[in-house]
Amino acid sequence: MSMGITELQGSRAAIGHGHGRRHAKQIVPSLEVYDRLFRDFADLDWRQARQQARRFLPAIERHFPAILEELDGLAQGAGIDFDDILTLNCRSEISLTRASGGCSAFSLNRHGQQWLAQNWDWRPDQLHNVVILRIKLNDGTVLISVGEAGMVAKIGLNAHGIGVCLNAIRSRTCGEGLPIHIALRKMLESPDFDAAKRVATLDRVASPAHILLASAEGQAVGLEVHPGVPGELYPQDGTVTHTNHLYAQAATACVEDFPRPDSATRLSRLDQLLTAQIAETPQALFELLSDHDNAPTSICRHTNLAQPEAERMETLFSVVMNLRRRELHLRLGNPCEPIDALTLSLADETT
């Protein structure tokens, strides 16, 4: 399996249609993956999940109405119903209130370089549905997102030097606000750090997650988002680290989460590794993400056959971003033994 880059540009409708047409053969299987997930963890069939997704429409219409044109184009391009695409983009709100994901993320600021990096750990049946989108909107906004086919965004950066990473949080909390993946897309369209942060603090996010936001200028914050005021984690010695549990007081005071035990051990290991002297190169940071301490529930996660099949996860891709250089380095599969690797740059798009 090798990775290709999907170039999308033009109107919202054209971008959505191009995405849907190009990746229809991955979007349809993605719907099947989440149909199984909703049944496994939320006891919902697809029809019920579609009904749940529609309750997020008012928040999208209020805070990011333009993305609805792209979602509609996506559905048309893939030859499926709008509600199916909406449900896919609300998958965290529907399922992650009960099923946790993995992921280990950190920001690092050293010698004028701002890095963002993470492993994305998820169900192995989604590996073949990972896509890389390079999007150029008619207003000149340019961004790169690495995520799942049919979703408008996940992890990435834009030409202004704004980058985002994501950690799942398992909680029964879900309220008003933007679905997580739609909030990430709005952040990736933001012209600066403050505008991106306002997506979390003003628009709000419907269900708990951790979004690690940073800028080329060296600003960074871990945002433990939820329907209320997000918890904010600021750099200590130039780093912010996060796994899959909440620990900012503003979040823990009003949200109960249910992390797996390895979330705390992975966070401690990340902190330990980042206190050591490490080379500030993509290779060195991928080596950090390849750490196998406490395997199989390590930073670099491999499938644990002792777990029930529905709960098995592994690292599906790893990302290291240098925001000052507008570079995104990607490894598909486990970072220790990647299936494929590539580097993307938005340096030529910097104004």
Automatic annotation (TrEMBL):
<protein>
    <submittedName>
        <fullName>Peptidase C45</fullName>
    </submittedName>
</protein>
<dbReference type="InterPro" id="IPR047794">
    <property type="entry name" value="C45_proenzyme-like"/>
</dbReference>
<dbReference type="InterPro" id="IPR005079">
    <property type="entry name" value="Peptidase_C45_hydrolase"/>
</dbReference>
<feature type="domain" description="Peptidase C45 hydrolase">
    <location>
        <begin position="110"/>
        <end position="335"/>
    </location>
</feature>
<dbReference type="InterPro" id="IPR047801">
    <property type="entry name" value="Peptidase_C45"/>
</dbReference>
<dbReference type="Pfam" id="PF03417">
    <property type="entry name" value="AAT"/>
</dbReference>
